[in-house]
Design goal:
The protein is mostly helical. The protein is about 60% helix and about 5% strand. The protein has one domain. The N and C termini lie far apart (about 35 Å).
């Protein structure tokens, strides 16, 4: 019975942490079903995301420091979007006034929502890192992961080598989190895989509602290739590093990194 209560509490905290992504999905569904006046759909999505971000900070659900890291991830995602659409990896076929090189500005919020989830879950579940690898290892690894999204179009794709290296680097690392007053532990590599998998599910929902379009979805929607999980897993590493760095620098009491447990 207690296990079910703990699972219910954990699910509720996760749902609250996913508030921003849920609003994005709801907006995608709404704007696909209902044609809003005056502006193209992509521009309405941008307005909704901006209003949601303002409300998150105004209500105290996100701090100004978290807004900074979320904004940084928004810019990182937007840069990736501009490059990928230029290379034909996917496209945004609908019209919109607020676009940069065929990429609607709302798209960056889909990446920022991942960082928002991490910040929210970190605080709500009182996350601590165990045996976090040295940043001299993690930072170059994260940079290599991000760069590979660009360079594999011109050179070999080393994502699987990077994935293997991630497993090696974080093999002994873990996260601890509090559910209903009890602290639990999970291997960090497993948490990466789980987050990457659920983002892949979210990606299928997003493409179904026309958030963007892969080449094989131009005629009719189809399931996003399972191989995309690896891409999201690697991108989660980058976002996790940014959030972890924020927590380390700020020395948050509620979601601190336990330096005594570092390698």
């Amino acid at each position: 019975m207690r296990a079910l209560k703990q699972l219910d509490f954990f699910g509720w905290e996760q749902a609250l942490s996913c508030l921003f992504p849920v609003v994005i999905f709801a907006s995608l569904a709404l704007t696909q079903i209902v044609q809003l006046p005056f502006l193209p759909r992509y521009d309405w999505l941008l307005i909704i995301c901006l209003l949601m971000q303002w409300w998150m900070v105004r209500s105290g659900l996100e701090t100004r420091d978290e807004l900074k890291v979320i904004t940084l991830f928004h810019l990182i995602g937007l840069a990736l979007e501009i490059f990928k659409t230029h290379m034909g990896s996917w496209s945004y076929p609908e019209e919109g006034y607020f676009k940069i090189l065929a990429v609607p500005l709302y798209s960056g919020f889909m990446y920022a929502s991942v960082a928002s989830y991490l910040c929210q879950a970190w605080r709500r579940l009182k996350v601590e890192l165990v045996k976090w690898p040295p940043f001299l290892v993690v930072v170059p690894l994260a940079a290599a992961i991000y760069l590979n999204f660009f360079t594999h179009h011109f050179w070999i794709d080393v994502r699987w080598w990077l994935s293997a290296f991630v497993m090696i680097v974080f093999w002994k690392s873990g996260v601890t989190y509090v559910v209903g007053g009890t602290r639990y532990r999970m291997p960090l590599a497993l948490s990466f895989v789980l987050i990457g998998f659920f983002i892949w599910i979210a990606e299928n929902i997003a493409t179904f509602f026309g958030a963007w379009e892969y080449p094989n979805q131009s005629d009719a929607w189809s399931l996003v290739h399972l191989g995309k999980v690896s891409s999201w897993l690697l991108l989660v590493i980058v976002s996790f590093l940014i959030v972890a760095t924020l927590k380390l620098v700020k020395g948050s009491n509620s979601s601190r990194i336990d330096n005594s447990k570092f390698l």
